[in-house]
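#struct-help
A.M.: can someone run this one for me? Single chain, 608 residues.
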Amino acid sequence: MSPRREGRLRRESGVRRGAPQFRLRIGFVVIAMVFSVFGARLVQLQAVDPGAYAALAASEGTVDVVLPADRGRILDRNGEVMAESVDGLMIIADPLLVNTDKDGNETDRAPELARFLAQRLHVDYFTILPRLRDTASRFQYIARAVPAALATKVVARAKAMGFDGLSTRRDPVRLYPGGDVAANLIGFLGTPHENGTARPLAGFEATFDDVLAGRDGSARYTVDSVSNGNRIPLGQSTVVPAVDGQDLHTTIDRDLQWYTQRVLRKTVEDARADSGAAVVLDTRTGQVLSLADYPTFDANEPLESPKEDLGARSVSDVYEPGSVEKVLTLSSLIDAGKVTDRTRLLVPGSLARQDRVIHDWFPHGTIKLTLAGVIAKSSNIGTVLAADKFAPGQLHSYLSRFGLGRATDTGIRGESAGILPGGSAWTSQTQDRVAFGQSVSVNALQMAAAVNTVANGGVRVDPSVILGSATTDDGQTVGSDDVRERRVISSDAAHQMALMMERVVDPEAGVAPGAQVPGYRVAGKTGTAQRANSECGCYDGTFTVSFAGFAPADSPRFTIYVVVQNPRNGGGGGSVAGPAFSQIMSYALRRYGVPPTGTRPSSLPVEW
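D.P.: on it. C-alpha cells below:
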C-alpha cells in the first residue's frame, strides 16, 4: 500500500490528537475519576464509620447553648413585686481563642485569665482553669446569672488586657426588691448551675418551683472552627424556645408586712428576747396579710445570715401558748351550754389537783370572779374550775375543731403540726393543764387561725397565703380558692367571748391596757407560758409571751397575734406583746380605711 493511501486511511479511521472528540473523551475520564473519589469518600462517611465522623464534626463546629426561661414573679395581693428576674448575663469562653495569640500561635494564657475572672466574678479558679484550657471545645460556661453591668465590664476589661474569646449571653438574675420583706415566706435560689438554672432552696421559691420555673430552651448552631468561632449564618441551626414560668400571687400585703416586721424587730430587741413572730389575718377570709419573723434575712444575700434564720419560725417553731388558750377553752364551754359570760366562780388562792398544785400568776386569797373576770384577770384556777364542767373528751373535741394538733397546710415550708394530746395521754391532769395553755403546743399561724374563729362569729376559716390556687411541689393544691369553712362554736358563744375579751384591755379591769387602739373597740387575750426544753424534758426557766386579738371588737376586720420567745426584761404578754399588737392593728385599720364603730365597749362585770 502506498504511503499516500496509508495516511488517508489513518485520517479516516482515527482521531487527531487536537480534535474536539479527543478532548471530550479525556474530560469524561477526568470527571469519572473525580466522582469516583467523592463516591469513595461518601461510602466512607456514611457506611464505614458515620458515627465517628458526625461526632468529630459536631465537636469541632457546633455549639449548644441554654436559652434560659424567665422565672415567674412572686407578687403581693396588690400586684407589687416581691421577687422577680431582671436582666443578667452569663459569661462564656471560647478556649481556642483564649489560648491563641494575635499572630495565630497557640499559647497557654488560661491561668492568667482564670485568676482575673476568679477575682472579679468570685468564681472558683480551679473550676474554670481546665475549662479555659479545653481548646477542643469552642464553648465553656464561666459564670451564670451575673448582673449585666458587671458582666459587660468584666468582658470589656479582659478584652483590654488582650484576651479574646470571652462573650456574654442573656441569663436572668433573681432579685428581691424588699430585701428582708417576707423573705421568711418567699425563700431564695441557690447559685446557678454552670449549664442550668439555679436550684430553689427555701420558701415559695422551692414549694412552687413547678409554677415559677418555666422550662429552659436550647439552641444548637454551627460555628467557624477555623478562624474566630463566629456563628455561620447558613450553617446548622436548631432552636427549642424557652417557656417562661407563671407568676405567683400571694395574699401578703407588702407594705403591711414591712411595717409588721419593723414593729416586731423593735419589740424583740427592746425585750432582749430570742425571737418573735407576728400574724395578721383578714378575719372574714382567713387570708394572711402579714406573717413576720425576727430574726430574719435578706433574700438577696441569704448566706450572710445564720441557717436557723432562713426559714419561717412562725410555722416551724412550736411552743405552749399559755393563757391565749383560755379563749378556746371558755368559748367552747359557753357553746356547750355549761356557762355564760356572767357565770360566778369562787376562786381560791391555790388549787390542789391530783399530781400538783395550780397557782395564778398573781397572788390572792379567795376571790369572786365572773367568767369575764377569769379572762380579764387571766386566772388559771378559775379556768380549771370552769373546765370541770366539760363532759369527758369534750374539750379535746373542741380544740381539734379549732385546728390544734394539725398543720394549717397553707404551702409554707417546714410547718410543724404542734401537739394536741389524745388517747391515753388525755387524762384529767392533762385536761387541767391544757385548759389554761400548758401540755399542748402550737405554731403562731395555727394559734392565730384558732382565735380568728372567735372573731369570725364561731366559723373557722382555713388560713391561706396564696391568692387563687396553686400546686405545691408535693402535689397539694392550696390557696384562697380552696379554703374550707366550718362552724366550731355558735355565733352567740363567739359574741360572749368577744365581750369578755374586751375587758382584758380595759385599764380598770384587765391586764393589757397597752393593747388598746385609740378610737376602736379591741378584744384580746394575753399569754405567758414556760418553755419546755426537749433536751431535759422539763421547763427550763424561759418563757413565751404573747397577745392575740381582733378589732373592731364588735365588727372584726383583722385578727392579729404577736408572740415573743424568752424576753429578758421581765415583761409578760400584756407589756411586751400587747403594745406591738396595738401598733400593728392601728396601722392595718388606717391602711384599709376601717372606721370606728362608734359603739360603747363591753362593761361586763368581772367580779360579783
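A.M.: thanks! The radius of gyration is 38 Å.
D.P.: also worth noting: The CA atoms of residues 266 and 272 lie 10 Å apart.
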